[in-house]
Specification:
- The longest helix has about 45 residues.
- The chain has one domain.
- The mean pLDDT is about 95.
- The chain starts with 5 loop residues before the first helix and ends with a helix.
- About 30% of the residues are buried.
- A hairpin with a 5-residue loop joins strand 2 and strand 3.
- The chain is globular, with a radius of gyration of 22 Å.
- By secondary structure, the chain is of the alpha+beta class.
- Helices cover about 35% and strands about 20% of the residues.
């Protein structure tokens, strides 16, 4: 076949595309299990961060198995849903469903001092994309013990600051119920009054992302309200 002909160029291009696609498919299939494992380890590490437990890829599973003593699924009424692994649930997908069809993962941790922490999953929207995370509450199911937030594409130095310890530490000790036991969540806004136990300062220059965190907390904790009130009572 004439290598300078259009026919040769066409056939050569098709064969090259097929070969490259085949190689990439084999690579993707081969790396799939490893990628899934990395996602699992990262998720466990983020859950542990809400109870102030630092981990590495080498010890995260041991630490998770040590401190996370229970995990289960509840519905919006706070009733247990059997037959579903809490760890496999995507809250983002659940929040797209009708409220009476939503399944919500709950994790319970027990620390070295014997105290119990309740960990809930969060998912929302920032300025440029999705934001998500976890929040842990003390045994009173009112006081925040810790949070962990992350994002898909928020602006570095601005909205992306929600994923830093400097921002997240401000949530510790805040309350999600007022003195009359009404759910108020946690506000994220500018110029928070000193001593306000229901609010934290917004990220400087990241107003929309901060609003996203505020809305995420309110919406997601509200979804868990049936379970929270059931346990509190």
């Amino acid at each position: 076949m004439d290598k300078n002909s259009n026919k040769y160029t066409f056939i050569y291009s098709i064969l090259l595309v097929v070969i490259v696609a085949t190689v990439l498919t084999f690579i993707a299939v081969g790396l799939g299990p490893r990628q899934e494992k990395n996602v699992e380890l990262e998720k466990k590490a983020n859950i542990l961060k809400t109870i102030n437990i630092s981990s590495t890829t080498k010890d995260v599973e041991d630490l998770y198995n040590k401190y996370i003593v229970e995990s289960f699924v509840v519905n919006r009424n706070g009733e247990n849903v059997n037959g579903i692994d809490a760890f496999t649930i995507s809250l983002k997908e659940e929040l797209r469903k009708e409220e009476n069809e939503q399944n919500l993962p709950v994790y319970i941790a027990k620390l070295d001092d014997g105290s119990k922490k309740y960990i809930f999953t969060l998912n929302g929207k920032g300025l440029w994309g999705g934001i998500w995370g976890y929040i842990s509450l003390d045994s009173d199911l009112n006081t925040v013990y810790g949070v962990n937030f992350d994002h898909a594409s928020e602006t570095p130095g601005l909205g992306a600051e929600i994923s830093t310890a400097v921002f997240q530490v401000n949530f510790k000790g805040k309350k999600i119920f007022d003195e009359n036991n009404n759910f108020v969540s946690i506000d994220v806004s500018k110029k928070v009054t000193e001593g306000n136990i229901h609010a934290v300062d917004a990220v400087s220059g990241g107003t929309i992302t901060s609003n996203g965190v505020r809305d995420m907390l309110k919406n997601c904790l509200n979804a868990y309200l049936g379970y929270i009130k059931k346990v509190k009572n």
